[in-house]
Amino acid sequence: MKKILGYQRPDGQVGIRNHIALVYTNDCAKVTARHVAAIAPNTHVFGWPHGCHWSQDAFNKLVALCSHPNVGGAVIFGIGCERIRAADVAAQVAKTGKPTGWVNIEEGGGTIKAIEAGLRHVLRITREASDAPRVELAPQDLILAVDCAASDSTSGLASNPATGVAVDFHVDRGAITYFLDVPEELIGCGDCLAARACSHTVAAELRKVASVAPDDPKIKPPYGNIRGGITTFREKAAGALAKSGTRPIQGVITDFTRPTKGGLYLVSAPPDAWTNDSDPQCVQIMAACGAHLVVETTGCGTVTGGVVAPVIKVCANPDTCAREPDNIDVDISGIIKGEMSIVDAGQIIYDEVMAVAAGRLTHAEILGHFED
Amino acid sequence: MSDTAQSSRRLTIKMGPTDDVAMALEQLRAGATVPVESAPGGPIVQVALIEDIPLGHKFALRDIRAGERIIKYNMEIGTALKDIPRGAWVGEHNLE
Questions:
Q1: CA A258, A139, A329: angle at the middle one, nearest 5?
Q2: Is A157 part of the contact surface with chain B (CB cutoff 8 Å)?
Q3: pLDDT in tens, chain B (96 residues)
Q4: What is the pTM of this model?
């Protein structure tokens, strides 16, 4: 196995990528940030595409993403009159010791001057970030996250169980591993989750999260799921849960602080931290919790990636793999074809995780899929 | 081919040993009799299909009465909307 040579940040954290983040704190600053990104390659734009009001969860998420070890430095753009102040975000991120800058578009004199100021920050920050020491990251210090996206029946019967095998490998190393399920993906799973909890307290937390979404049989899954063979939300949830493997669950993460103890955790983000309950948002939430990279299973064939953490796409649907090979990193359709066991597929997925951590670029990264 | 082995190409998969349904790994046709591994490494059960089963879709492993809960992944995934005979396609039309 190739060593993972990571980028060491001033606070000692080690990342597997060296991104420069351009962050907008509200909708009005978004275009300016994108204009800077258009001029400076190797920058990645993300932010809070909403209005002026304060959101503690949004503030915390932006700070967490900028403080992530995969991020070498950040420039924060604010229009100037919103509640989530660019200077405040930058000040929090600066506590990690990594280079930061901020731009107030209104006070700075409008678009052109903001672009100029932003580019000067990018110049300074990128030079410094590119000097980051290269140090080895031990596999057990790699935070892996898993998610399912655009699921069909092959997700629940093949790609999720195979991902669960990879998760078991990683958790057995003592590493922190996340799985994320939105409330509708936990319908009916309270008993199963509680049975795996490491304590009564965690069991109660898991039951609480599993009871958020209404367990109403009249509410149907999306058309793509039905067409693919998933009939009820409970069935979808059971298939989704297979990606979490079999190991005990250490806790539920509901904010953006990383746990100190290794093991498996369910990520259930605060409701106000979402801009939209989408697959890129799920990836972003897990990155905000510190995930270095994300394994995303797909049945229908989603194409999305993520801004901070690279996304490895795993697919077991033979038709999708044949139709969309450009977007799939790991083709385990051999399970459906009867040629590959779930355990063997899990090893293939885990080998890819280690390769991407060590520097292999995912299809999503190469094709520019850094969805905000 | 031994009594306890599937054919060289697996046609079905059952996710949990207590499940009421198994899934088709390829398009299966009404009238075919397909092997189902009842549990990992366990005995093979032959099921006669009475309807076409699309890839990834479910079929009943036993006669299910209307109103009964249906088990998959060893957990309840819903309720039968009508009587479902063994070998019938299980989906939106008869499961909620």
A1: 95
A2: yes
A3: 333 344 467 899 888 889 999 999 889 999 999 999 887 778 999 999 999 999 889 999 999 999 999 999 888 899 999 999 999 999 999 999
A4: 0.89
